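PROTEIN FOLDING TASK:
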Amino acid sequence: MNKNATNPQTKNKNVPRPGGRSGGGPGQGMPLGRPAEKAKDFKGTIKRLMKFLKPQIVLLTIMVILTVVMTLLGVIAPNYTREILNTMQGLLDGTVGNEGLIVIRNLFITIIVIYIVNFVMELIAHLVGNQVSATTGKTFRNVLREKLERLPISYFDRSQTGNVLSIFSNDVEAVTNVIQQSMIQIIQSFLMIVGVLVMMFIISWQLTIISMIILPLYILTTSTIAKRSQSRFIRQQRELGNINGYIEEMYTGQKIVKLFGKELDSYNKFAKINDQLSVEMKSAQFLSGLIRPIMEFISNLGYVAIVIVGAILAGAAMPLLIGDITIFVTYHRRFMNPILNLANLINMLQSAVAGAERIFDLLDAEEEVLEQKLKEFAPETFSGKVEFNDVDFSYLPEQSLIKNLNLEVEPGKQIAIVGPTGAGKTTLVNLLMRFYEIDKGKITIDGIQTTDVTRSELRSLFGMVLQDTWLFAGTIRENVAYGKDDATLEEVIEACKQAHVHHFIETLPHGYETILNEDASNISQGQKQLLTIARAILFNPRILILDEATSSVDTRTESYIQNAMNYMIQGKTSFVIAHRLSTIKRASTILVMQHGEIVEQGNHEELLARKGAYYELYQSQFVQPMI
């Protein structure tokens, strides 16, 4: 979404949502995309990962070629050592003359060169692997970020923030770590198994058969343990997301936790989630950790058998030399080590697949419905006439909220929306800006149906000032100009003057270049609110949404904010979600909502005279009860 299309207040966590003050929505805090107990599609997930690696095909090809060459060098190098040992044995028993020393020297030089070349190629292969890993991680984060832009607000209502962040960090890292640390090892291990097996047959087919006999034990053990541990790795990734979500939630709400003395309760809940994560991690790591000790045990049995049979063959008609037996044992270890490495890599691979499934769960989440685009759309030509025609809407199919809503708002009029919590006040403006899609009916602006334009075009007509302010880490000037990138400093200053915040900014050491920290805690709540109003003034939208921007400030600041808002709404269609009825007395029309319906409509004096729902709300705020 183009950030210039709307006031930034419409694009952040403070956008009014169901289940908050307005009520009527689904519950919050549901974890994101909890995976099943078992991998849904292991092979399918691997295939999707391969598609993400396709743009890196050149680097991957280079890495594979280097890995193949250095693996072949690693396979043949021990054979030169075997020839050195056999030549030395020949020198000792007199079967080889002094020319054997020259042979040994040449073989030694050859081995040194092989190891140097192997080192250089392995270094290059790892550098290429790092490049592929970093690029793939960047691609994943970009794709995930773009996906978030296409998800409906309802998705964020039911998703835990920390859990989404965990996908960007832990799950992406788990996948990229496999690429960085394991891809070369996987290729190398498979090639090493084949190459070493050939060399073992060349030295002694009898001893090779012994090594092959124990191979099924490796495969059976690895596959059995891997199958049992996969579901545990999935649960481990899920619990990691849960604990990240809870930490983020408690960090942002630390003041409330301390205010109500809930530190111990917060810690106990954290400890419970942490314990569950620990249980899942221990279970997953224990099972995968069994693989190597069992493999080592089986391998040691093979060593014993090879030594015994080798000793027998050493005295046979076709004896094996010392170098043959020694290097065969080396090859046997090199034959088993790749299998052991593959067993270890299964641990990382399972974490990566579990993380990838959570990534793809997010990427597969249902997006907002496809949009249409008019050929001509000029926001500056809109007058701001808004109509709701027979609109029905519900957050949940079984829980209806708005029924058959009809409303006509003339351009430049101020519409105040009042009513008890859960009446549907905030829902009304959410539907207007298409944060949610209506179930029935239509909403038009200047006769154009909101579904006939893109959301970014539609929202370019709106500016919002919410009770909960949102400012990002950056300068005051950048925050005020967030909705208008090409704004000059003079325009920013003029907007701040109209918002009654210019004088305060001038008193700061760095003025408009003052840096606000991440949550703008280095300025007061009222000052933050005035800055958001200045931002809306500078953006100059056709329609304004004001959600009780004065409810959390002192009386003097409230008067500043009220004056700034009065200036801002001049000549504009505005919707004011009101809780303090004193702030809406001058509204052109006041809508009184109950249970998703407009039960009363009129100006302040008319509604008081009716002595209906509005009158009761007004009395509850301004008439002191008899004691």
